[in-house]
Amino acid sequence: MNRDNDTWVAQLSSAGAEREVALTELRVVLFRNLRKALAGRPHVDNSFLEDAVQDALLRILDRLDQFQGRSRFVTWATSIAIRVALGELRRSRWKDVSLDSVLDDTDYAPTRAVDSSPSPELLVQQEALFHKLHELIETALTEKQRAALLAELRGMPQDEIARHLGSNRNALYKLTHDARKKLKSALQNAGYREDELELTY
């Protein structure tokens, strides 16, 4: 059945058989669109897609009042499903990785964040700044702040960091926000100017 935007919203907001039919058809559409969007990605099989679609449907139903009609309803719903699926893929990558193993990874080097294009003098200044930053991460932060910030820098999703720390996203945001403020203040006290700190913030 071809539905316009208003019909999708009305039927999914209703009760009874009409809603179930709309849900069934939307599930089929989302499964097909997700399979096409994620084709070739590792760990994406029918079971993964079915779980992602189910999670996406719950979010879509919860956010029906946020649909503003700027695109086709199916396009809007598919974008939610893709975000759900990609988020799950990111989390699954880190699922069996311990926070300790992330923090023990010594591969994070200041030169990764240094721009290699400037003059040799500026390059030396940048490297010195990042070495100082690493020193302060080790000495100026609490153990929990250090763990959260380094895990974030190394790409661990916030949901996984929060899970490892026995926390939640809001508390984690405050933890890393406070850590950055503390580092910025310590760098300024060490003599670095505001324009130099733009390299790190």
UniProtKB/TrEMBL annotation:
<keyword id="KW-0804">Transcription</keyword>
<dbReference type="InterPro" id="IPR013324">
    <property type="entry name" value="RNA_pol_sigma_r3/r4-like"/>
</dbReference>
<dbReference type="InterPro" id="IPR014284">
    <property type="entry name" value="RNA_pol_sigma-70_dom"/>
</dbReference>
<dbReference type="InterPro" id="IPR036388">
    <property type="entry name" value="WH-like_DNA-bd_sf"/>
</dbReference>
<dbReference type="GO" id="GO:0003677">
    <property type="term" value="F:DNA binding"/>
</dbReference>
<dbReference type="InterPro" id="IPR013325">
    <property type="entry name" value="RNA_pol_sigma_r2"/>
</dbReference>
<protein>
    <submittedName>
        <fullName>ECF RNA polymerase sigma-E factor</fullName>
    </submittedName>
</protein>
<dbReference type="GO" id="GO:0016987">
    <property type="term" value="F:sigma factor activity"/>
</dbReference>
<dbReference type="InterPro" id="IPR013249">
    <property type="entry name" value="RNA_pol_sigma70_r4_t2"/>
</dbReference>
<dbReference type="Pfam" id="PF08281">
    <property type="entry name" value="Sigma70_r4_2"/>
</dbReference>
<keyword id="KW-0238">DNA-binding</keyword>
<feature type="domain" description="RNA polymerase sigma factor 70 region 4 type 2">
    <location>
        <begin position="140"/>
        <end position="183"/>
    </location>
</feature>
<dbReference type="GO" id="GO:0006352">
    <property type="term" value="P:DNA-templated transcription initiation"/>
</dbReference>
<dbReference type="InterPro" id="IPR039425">
    <property type="entry name" value="RNA_pol_sigma-70-like"/>
</dbReference>
<keyword id="KW-0731">Sigma factor</keyword>
<keyword id="KW-0805">Transcription regulation</keyword>
<dbReference type="Pfam" id="PF04542">
    <property type="entry name" value="Sigma70_r2"/>
</dbReference>
<comment type="similarity">
    <text>Belongs to the sigma-70 factor family. ECF subfamily.</text>
</comment>
<feature type="domain" description="RNA polymerase sigma-70 region 2">
    <location>
        <begin position="34"/>
        <end position="94"/>
    </location>
</feature>
<dbReference type="InterPro" id="IPR007627">
    <property type="entry name" value="RNA_pol_sigma70_r2"/>
</dbReference>
